[in-house]
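Replying to the earlier thread about multi-chain prediction with a worked example.

Input:
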Amino acid sequence: MATAVARVRVPTRSLSSELRAIKVVWKRELIRFSRDRLRILTSLMQPFLFLFVLGTGLSRLASAGTHGVNLRTFVYPGVLCMAVMFTAMFSAASLVWDREFGFLREMMVAPVRRSSLVLGKCFGGATVAGFQGVIVLCLAGLVGVPYDATLIVEVFALQLLLAFAITAFGVMVAARITQMQSFMALMQMAIMPMYFLSGALFPVSGLPQWLEILNRLDPLTYAVDPMRRAVFAHLKILPAARQALDPGVTWWSWHVPGLVEAGVVAALGLLMLTIAIVQFSRAE
Amino acid sequence: MSQTATTSPGSATETAPSCAVSVNGLVKRYGKLEAVRGIDFEVAAGEIFGFLGPNGAGKSTTINMLCTLVSPSGGSASVAGHDVVDERDDVRRNIGLVFQDTTLDGYLTAEQNLRLHAELYGVPRELVGERMRQVTEMVGLWDRRGSLVNTFSGGMKRRLEIARGLLHSPRVLFLDEPTVGLDPQTRSSIWRYIRELKAREDITIFLTTHYMDEAEYCDRIAIMDHGRIIVLDTPAALKAEVGKDRVQIQTDDDQAAIAGLRERFGIDATVAEGAITFGVPEGGQFVPRLFDDWDPTLPAIRSVSVARPSLDDVFMSHTGTTIRDAESGQTDTRRNFARMMSR
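Result:
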């Protein structure tokens, strides 16, 4: 009986083995996220603060400029982005922990492509961040945004796209940065300016030129703007309010269509993903 | 009941090579530092082969090259019949690894860690359950499979890592300092698993250690120091080669006794571990002679012990220093940190 050992023959590499690897790395992210209730709560805190504290407080100052639209409603699309961003960033950060606690080695030495590991990680990050986004999406009613099937689908798709791009960005950075403190500092330094410049908290027309230039260079602008368009398309508001609050991003007075904007985010996400894969594929 | 999962007719032709590991002139340089300076050796299939040497001797670098984590700067090596540079994937499919520092995910359960490994290695789905049971039962963790790994002790984690390293039936299992940082009891149980493993599975075991007593369990050992293999043989042959047994005596006046030993027997003795220590060939036959010729004017001998040469003596005779002395002076801060964190 003791000699009855099931011998396993590890199959040679194939597409299906790569898919299995992607899936299991993705699944691990989900398991870990579901275990970490504290993380779910803390990453929801920032969106809540922006939406209900900042939104409510500032609305007393800004009511004249918003043409009767509640400021909470105005910042809601930006907050939808924010919820996704921070979760995605923390997902990528776990890669730095994996390195520090050795688990990365277990993955790196497996007979699968490094690209499968990176892809699994990015899909995982996008999925948990997407879940976080859904929670904020559920709050729509509280800020005067109707629950509408097409709106929810549009917003959720944009959130997934943004989450994927941010995770890819984080993974790209994590390939080089081996210490958690440095990683977090670097991400904060990248994420906060990106968020403030993106127009998540202000309309993007009629800005001073320096700010307009920075805003148009900020990749996050192209995630926030289509999100806002999707939300505002379902609001019943005056044309003047729409004009003032949802002017849309322009390139030299050309109104950039939402699909092009999503394309910009997708292209950047893929670029960063490629860089991340190349970096992880290099042997010592 | 024995099962073989053959995924393609081609894999049946993958016959076991006579040599599990073959290394030719392997070199690894990090900038100016030459960590491994051209080593050659072969490990036969089914052997327990040990790399013995102080920290920083190049053992881990060699293992990292053999398991394809680090590319060699020169020379070549093959594992399970596959070149570690050109056939990296084939090597990876055929090896199991247990690293010095834990590489488990503490936030997953033992079972989840094993399943993750099975997926990464493409273990056929219908075999995962049975195989997982076998390896966890072997290391006595079947009952704890549902527990989070973070709740495990250091010894349990190491056992789980050994189980995981075996999950995909590797031909060669690499164990890098498998017992470092563990208490003596856990160390001996880890060794029980390793020996049991050799009896049960058709596997070659390649390990590194800087514990002399553990090297004794190996079929053959290579002593490594400063990036070179100094000597390679069976533990018994290495010890026989030293040729001298270690004799320790205790007296009331060590200085006078040492002087007497020099005059009467021409032996240079020193005080070590609180006793007068010296080496002689055939120590057992020397002791009666010692008492016959011991001058009554010399201080009385209160106790005698004779020890066969240990691997410590082997290391010393080849390098002129003990492993412990070779290690002091270089602190492995990274590992200390990891050990601290895993507590």
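Chain B has two domains: 16-238, 244-308.

Feel free to reuse this layout for your own posts.
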